[in-house]
Amino acid sequence: MDKANKNIKEKLGTIANGMGAWLIILILIVVMTLINDKFFTVSNFINVFRQVCVVGICALGVSFVVLGGEIDLSSGMSATFAGCNAALLITKCNMPVWLAILIAVAIGSLVGLVSGFIVTYWKIPSFIGTLGMQYVVQGFILITTNSMPVTGLPDSFLYLGRGYIANVIPVPVVIMLIFFIIGAFLLKYTPFGRSVIAVGENPEAAALSGLKVKMTKMLMFTLGGFCAACAGIVMTARLSSGQPSSGSDLSLQALAAVYIGGTFNGSMFNTLAGALVWGFINNSLNLLGVSAYWQKVVLGGIIILAVLLDTIRAKVSVKKQ
């Protein structure tokens, strides 16, 4: 009997570990459906997905950096910089929307490349290097915008953040899902994805096996900058203006999505789950009328708990081996 119970517990533990953040989402949905009748509605679910799009796209790029054994604190400002640059190019330089977006995304990728160079070649710890880049980019944002919102954007640009397909599916949700499908493919089926995981696990062993560690790190930071810039375009389109302070919390939210989702298991869709957990908790607290101040306390506690659980899970996995 004890052996049977032990087997059942092990199976349940394996299932829970495999589901990770998806199990948290399922529990949240069940609990909130019982508590609040406004939660389990199509409009509310669409609203949650729309809210997590910017964080999700940014977190996708951050996932590659974290899986590669580094951290990126500049992604939020890179997103804001790209959004404000696109807005300025469209409104002040009368540039076509597609060209302004292309240039803004290229600049965001360049920020990621510079961060990668600082970390890889100057041997500055990524926490400090990207924190410095965050302030550098923030300074450029304030200089270029004069600390003022950039308004007057055309409908063709706003469609990326506020539009709907068939009047049902939000455009930013489609963009986010496309990004995650491509990201999952890159991680699982390309040499680059396998190199990122190898470098993150053991850079010395990766170098000895013939992998170009420095090139891999440069690429993953550049990809992080690219995703942050794309997130910034969607964010600016959603806000209908380039807001110099719009991405102040985005870096930490993106990192939270990575850690809550348990992306270390090697699945990019875990990051999506982490972003959705963040979105559903925010949504639940709003529906329950919890103060915005207390929401920050709760969300901060969830980040700490997520990291703690991931640490415990890693130790248990090592013991089993």
From TrEMBL:
The keyword ATP-binding does not apply. Its main location: membrane. It is a multi-pass membrane protein. Pfam families: BPD_transp_2. It comes from the Bacteria. Keywords: Cell inner membrane, Cell membrane, Membrane, Transmembrane, Transmembrane helix, Transport. CDD domains: TM_PBP1_transp_AraH_like. It is found in: Cell membrane. The chain crosses the membrane at residues 15-36, 48-67, 97-118, 124-143, 164-187, 218-237, 258-281, 293-312. This is Ribose transport system permease protein. It comes from Blautia caecimuris. The lineage of its organism: Bacteria, Bacillati, Bacillota, Clostridia, Lachnospirales.
